[in-house]
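Input.
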Amino acid sequence: MFEIGWSELLLIAVVAIIVIGPKELPGVLRGLGRAMNRFRRSADDFRRQFEDSVRDTGFDDIQRDLRSVADMHPANQIRNSINAAMQEPSSRPASPSEFDAARQAPEPPSASPAPPAPPTGEQQPGPDAISAPAPPRV
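Output.
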């Protein structure tokens, strides 16, 4: 709240010694400490009374109801279902021997045969090929 640096505190102390005097300074500081203590106690009492009144009005119930309404938001429901799905244990991962066996197994025959080669002798690019312009001749 108040940002008082060491230089400001030193200036206040010098002015207090000059204005109040070194004899009466301890008594004044003691009275200032007591006043600050009373102020803190009254602030704590006010805070406690405020929290009690909030608790008596049922603010916690209203806050709980608002949170339950916020949980019904579709985005929150989707987020919760995704988080739950990610936390569920998945199937057991394959061991290295199972992985090697699956890799060495013959592939099943495909449902459609490969297309015949073009009759001209030149191979036509397939649908997966990327067509690129021919390089310039030098």
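DSSP finds five helices and no strands in the chain.
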